[in-house]
Design brief:
Helices cover 1% and strands 44% of the residues. A hairpin with a 4-residue loop joins strand 10 and strand 11.
Length: 322
Amino acid sequence: PDVLPARILGHGFSRVDPNTKGQHLEEYVVGFEYEFAPNWAAGIKYIDRDLKKVIEDALTLDGDYFIGNPGYGEMTETYSMAAAWGYNDAGPSAIPVPERAFSGIELTLQKRFSNNFQFLTSFLFSEMTGNYDGLFQASTGQLDPNLNSAFDYADFQVNNQGNLSNDVPFQWKFDGIYRFDFGLSTGLSAHYRDGTPITAMGYSWAYNNWEYYLSERGEFGNTDAVWEADIHLGYPIKLGSSLELNILVDIFNVFNRQGETRVDDAYTTANDAYDVLDWDTNIPYDPITASTTDRPPTNAGWLTSSRWQDPRTVRLGVRLSF
């Protein structure tokens, strides 16, 4: 009897804060490059990228959406799901200021083309932290730019602070070519990158999706590292004085490595969902950890691989130049 009648969330029009500022980020890059030998250069740079104002939506107590800059102006308060649905009379909760901060140090080594070959390789050590994945909400798989669920309810911000979904601590890349004297050109592109953080995600009946951060971000480690290499071959055939026919072969994922790129992070099924807030008191539950026993995972596929690298593919091509 204390629960509000069912209703459709969102009305015909959404209120917009008239003082909404444009979304933007700030980036600073500082570095230098030094040519230590003819055609050889090494470099280092520091990158700092910080998301500033964000445009997003949230829900009011009457079930209407409003749009603005989270944490500023008229978009400083929202409600827990329990309060919005009439289960308790708790007041509004503060909407946090969105954070997505990237910092990294990149080392590069470059060999400019000479003696039939060139290459560029880089090593990037970085960290991306905050409480907002961005226009694509990787944690929930939602692509509704500026209308993601991140700030809709106070529930969705519980435990949502830490290493973001696309945080990759280390990446290595290599791109190089070698041209033989008899005309054959060969290319190699290879990369290695660490896995991304694993978070225990909980199901929201209101959104029919895994929206709750039951654990802190990255509590369950990272997915497996990903590496692969691609090869390019090209051979020119002269056809008269002005025509050249190039036979091309590209081999992607030459080692046919099909390692995991994502794991099943749904900690529960839709029928055995856990909440992040006590619906009577609006007090957050303790975040789930690897040692939690009173709220075990109910999804049998929890932490199993759910996406993999694409298998080896070969592409043949012909290019006519004149």
